[in-house]
Amino acid sequence: LPDAQRDSNEEEAGNSEPSEPPAARYSAMATVEAVNREARVIKLAHGPVEALGWPAMTMDFGVADALDLGAIEPGQRIHFVMRRTDDGRYVVDEIHVQDGAPVTEVHDHD
After folding, report:
1. Please, which residues have CB within 8 angstroms of residue 31's CB and are 6 or more apart in sequence?
2. How many CA atoms lie within 13 A of 23 on its CB side?
3. Are 16 and 22 in contact (CB under 8 A)?
């Protein structure tokens, strides 16, 4: 069994560079600037991504097919997680809205 486990781990690693495996994920805070649901692209003004040496900037990201963009709107403050694809692009695969529920949705019992 140890040989079988080692073989499956080597297959998962593929031909990746040791410094950045395919499963590496990076996160940052951002403000949503634009959402193109049809093209599955989101424009984010993000803070620094220290793990990649990126300064704060605004850029477009592809969005993973499994991610629902239905509730994502320009102006929202988010925390996002992205991964690097085999072709070197960065794709967002998690979005966590930080704004919370609008005050109008708070249950008031008056």
Report:
1. 44, 45, 75, 76, 77, 78
2. 4
3. yes
